[in-house]
Protein 1
Amino acid sequence: MSKVNPPAIQSEQNPFDASRLCAITDDLLRLAKSKGATAAEAGLSVEEGLSVTVRMGEVETIEHNRDKSLGVTVYLGQRKGSASTTDFTTAALDHTVQAAMDIARYTEADEYAGLVDPRYLAKDYADLDLYHPWTVSPETAIEMAKVGEATAMEFDPRITNSEGAYITTHSGYRVYGNSHGFLGHYASTRHSNGCTVIASENDRMERDYWYSLARAADQLEDFVEVGRKAGQRVIARLGARKLKTQKAPVIFQAEVARGLLGHLIRSISGGALYRNSSFMVNKLGERIFPARITIDERPHLPGAIGSAPFDSEGVANRAHPLVKAGVLESYVLDSYAARRLKLEPTGNAGGVHNLFISDDGKDLKALLKDMDKGLLITEVMGQGVNIVTGDYSRGAAGFWVEHGEIQYPVEEFTLASNLAEMFQRLIAVGNDIDTRSSMCTGSWLIEQMTVAGG
């Protein structure tokens, strides 16, 4: 089976036997063909990592993990069957392929089923600098977590309890191949640290947290800073008041605004579109945001959390706009959805990669000044988002703002609007971009929403 040209990875830095993992995937595909599959695809992953948690200065958990999995999908014409295993022995591979074949024989034919057209597959790809292993010992990780938690607890005497501080480090290797001759693979790492603490005042308790996430350990925020931010955030929430029902402008802080981007992606994703279960059906080419807004995908940013050399079907992903000058330019499609919609796949099987929304060059402080009076939202809760209609209704907490300055914390209220209206009423996007996700955005200032208070 032919291979694309993957980036070389230094063997002395890489604990994964890439040649063996590729050979297993290749063997599985050959086995599927030998058993009569007209087409087949397989995905293999191996992972290892360390997770340490401390609480109130004591070690709570230390976990080492080593996991592996291999899944295969076979096609008998337009009939499809899938099976998976964690056993990579020859006998297990044979059993797994046979199970997938047996399933395919009893499924209904689906005219849209099948592998992606070969012309969309990645022919080669560059090293995206995703692999930065961290050989931290459990003892060192414990001490670092203790420092972070202690910093948070010492921030203010009203911080009286902790839900813990943690460090995680994760390394993985992924292989994807199909019977078109594609066999791609790459290694990646992901590390994080975080802390959650509880503060109390006048018989009321509040909880808040902070964390950082990066491909390389030296890009994580120092644990002293993580602890300080966790302490600062929880103290700011003490003394929260209730609001009266009203209409007001709203700023969604960057880490919360990320969820709004997520709702957009759900609404323009293939499954929702071909089922006619999205308020964005038939909106391609229409203006859905103000004209100054562009939302684009940048899958090949070196070292970024959302970067990947190809999607989960081996499709070559590329930098491209989803929204340009406010107009919806592209849906988010895997090959199956693309066939259903008579469109081309967009390289988004498995999700989006480094989505960015254009900002207006203003920090959060400037957005507060622009809003003058309204709400700064720091937390939303509940499942009140209907992608079919776009209706939005979620519980929230945050801060009341007057004269462009935070006045006091608020809680126990509901925000209500419609996503289509919220997108159109996006007055400004901040430059306080949160990059701890595949969806990167600053804070959003929305012209008006309904606030249902207590």
Protein 2
Amino acid sequence: MMLAKVIGTVVATVKYPTLEARKLLLIQPVTKDGVPRGRPLVAVDAVGAGVTETVYWCRGKEAALAFDTEVPTDASIVGIVDQITTAELPAVRPATKPTGGRR
């Protein structure tokens, strides 16, 4: 799953039958810090997200699995993010090599 910000809605006057009554949203992929990355894309909403919310989304075959019926999509919103918390990890020192001394 990846993070994105919902930046708009998409209106389609004609849809594939299994997309009827499904909301299409325009999302901008972002980093964990909220910095945009990549290009915006259209995703089918599976959770009731709205504009300005940060969401989890997935793509590929897994995107279609978010729905009970077969939905032709390669990007789906599967969660709404309430909060992102990150922690500073301690620096990891590189492993030392054995000296190769004689026994």
Protein 3
Amino acid sequence: MMNMLMAIGGEVGPAASRIAVYAIGGNALSDPSRAKMGDDSNQEQALVLGKVLSDIVDLLEAGYRVVVTHGNGPQVGDLLMLEERATASEDMAQRPRTGLDSWVAATQGIIGHEIALNLDSMLQRRGRPERTAVILTRVEVAADDPAFDLPAKPVGPVLSDEAVKKEEWDIAATVIGPRRVVASPLPKMILDSAVIHTLVGQGAVVFCGGGGGIPVIRLDGQLVGIPAVIDKDRFSALLATELSADALLISTAIDSLKTAFGTSSEKTLTEISCADALDGIESGEFPSGSMGPKLSAMVMAKQNITDCEVLLCQPGDALKALRGKSGTRLV
């Protein structure tokens, strides 16, 4: 495998010794707020994807080996909804249901395939030696994680009033409207981290941990999939720690962290300390439905790897954020 990777990926020189973990939000790839309105946003999504690809190439050209993670909330919710509507028909009613962990695996393949295919084409056009690898990534969680008793992770589109009344789902209010929610346990261990580390070492651009990874628990000595969606930023922070990454970039819909967001007192933060970030989460300045989980994951990474550059930025600004010209840096 190593010889094959060296052949297709080219030799990795000393300049490419640094590792960057680049996390893409699932909403950046499929906006759940548009699904409710039936808005065809293909052009806008293509623009976002183009910025994501440019970020990855920019990081490679700056001398980083790149590991890409991504969310899947809108996509996995759509697949769940499609299956549930299909099984409502008489001829499909007896068909066994697909587990949520399997749908997470499916979205890892679907999203990873799409981004990797586009990136491979861009790399070839640029004459870059790297090639991509998409890894179905399993993540162990605790069977007794309290998140299983309090579903809070939004998946799928914003729901209409009719759907809220009709569907027998766990539904919660979010900043963009009511959405279905599922359990989101904390990641304990990335079972495929050794494979990821090997591929990164051989110069591949690795796509892994899609949707936060496929959640599994240990039951009577066996690994078993469990219905949940792990927070992808928490996974990314754990991955950055296990890889001893030099940079963790959380790519999201806004250009930087804001206080008093959406008000006349709104203020842009170019940097924030771990202590202030935790205080903001505790006070509700950075709520659990938006920036809270991202900041919490960023603090976790920074506390575990103090010399890691931990940044929040929008797609297209990765290199500018590393240079201190955009985004928010955690200090």
Protein 4
Amino acid sequence: MTQITKQLVRLHRRVESAAQSVDRDPDSIRILAVSKKQPIEALVAAYSAGLRDFAENYLQEALDKIPAIEPDAVWHFIGPVQSNKTRSIAANFDWVHTVSSQRIAMRLSAQRPVDRDDLQVCIQLRPSGAEERNGVTEEDLPDLAAAIMAAPKLCLRGLMIMPLPNNNEAVTHREFARAHRLYDELKCAGYAIDTLSMGMSADLEVAITQGSTCIRIGTDLFGSRDYE
């Protein structure tokens, strides 16, 4: 058994325990392998262990990796979306979790290749009280959701949130609960969404108990990253 297979077994146990604590099906929770700063060999090992969803923060790094993995892998962009990179993101990724403005959404829509399926989109929520952080405010969320739904070549799948680092568990719990409330409000408004992208290695249990359907896991799969 490879090291990443062992890590994946441990991860599945954590997911199963958290899901069962709130009477959820563990299979309803998608695991994204956050592979930034990991060598291609680590991604190949993750693919061999059964993972198919890979998430990248940095565009150029991802473009170097995508051709090295089998074509049935699903690629998720989870970094900030800059205007000068929307064309490459639209052309090479299956999902974007970090859409937070109509301007970026319209660029992704216009630049999605006609021969590719619709780009799957999550709206990134801004953490409470963090004006300097990426993400849409609660007030602007309805207008952005409506714009994405009306845009060609985009499919609105749900919401994503990344709480501020070093929050205590109570604050993280509140942020995840707020995201779940806004997700439910969009569903009640008629949006056919199914994805609540929240939770990482350190807080996945809190995220799952608050309804996450998609957790983004790096360190607990691949180990520490080399930033040199």
